């Protein structure tokens, strides 16, 4: 593990976090569930081992069945509504942190696109990154 840390918070500052090391992956997720959760065409998510993250403050959570049938617990700030991270009940050892909540969102590099089967048709991807129809192998 490198000594790089990534810090982030919600817009109002009620919730803050620190993740040690580099994310295992950084993906743009175009699934319907992430479209709801982001209010946009896709969510950009950094995969961090839960053990490397320190969370501080309280978040609210709602639970949905994700597009792959897994149980997705989506955490957001109860005060300002910033989407913060999600965790799968089936895979609690990984946190999926919303890249937009990082203090420095440009400190992590996008590695690919997932759930392109539900990508919005007006969005043209020309970044040369992988485009997976569904979930990556984890
Ligand atoms: Zn907040
Ligand atoms: Zn998704």
CATH architecture name? Beta Complex
Determine the strand fraction and express it as a percent band: 35-45%
Kindly report how far apart the N and C termini lie: 19 Å
Give the SSE string: EEEHEEEEEEEE
**Which fold name fills CATH's third level, the topology?**
Metal Binding Protein, Guanine Nucleotide Exchange Factor, Chain A
Shape: globular
Number of helical regions: 1
Summarize the biggest pleated sheet: 8 strands, mixed
Global Rg: 14 Å
Sequence stretches where pLDDT stays below 50 over 5 or more residues: none
CATH class: Mainly Beta
Number of discrete domains: 1
The helix content is: under 10%
The largest sheet has its strands arranged as: 6-7-8-9-4-3-10-11
Ions, cofactors and other ligands present here are: zinc ion
Q: What is the structural class? A: mainly beta
Mean pLDDT: 95
Number of strands: 11
Chain-wise SSE layout:
Layout: E1 5-9, E2 16-20, E3 25-29, H1 32-38, E4 43-49, E5 53-56, E6 60-65, E7 71-76, E8 83-88, E9 91-98, E10 112-114, E11 130-131
Parallel strand pairs: 3-10, 10-11
Antiparallel strand pairs: 1-2, 2-5, 3-4, 4-9, 6-7, 7-8, 8-9
The protein binds zinc ion (2 copies).
The site of one zinc ion (ZN) has 6 residues, from α1.
Protein name: GFA family protein
Keywords: Lyase, Metal-binding, Zinc
Organism: Zhongshania marina
Structure report:
With 138 residues, the protein is mainly beta. The protein has a single domain, classed as Metal Binding Protein, Guanine Nucleotide Exchange Factor, Chain A, CATH 2.170.150.70. The protein is 5% helix and 41% strand. Strand 7 and strand 8 (83-88) form a beta hairpin. It is globular. The mean pLDDT is 95. The chain binds zinc ion (2 copies). One zinc ion (ZN) binds at residues 10-12, 14-15, 77, 79-80, 82. It holds the Pfam family GFA. Residues 6-123 form the CENP-V/GFA domain. Keywords: Lyase, Metal-binding, Zinc.
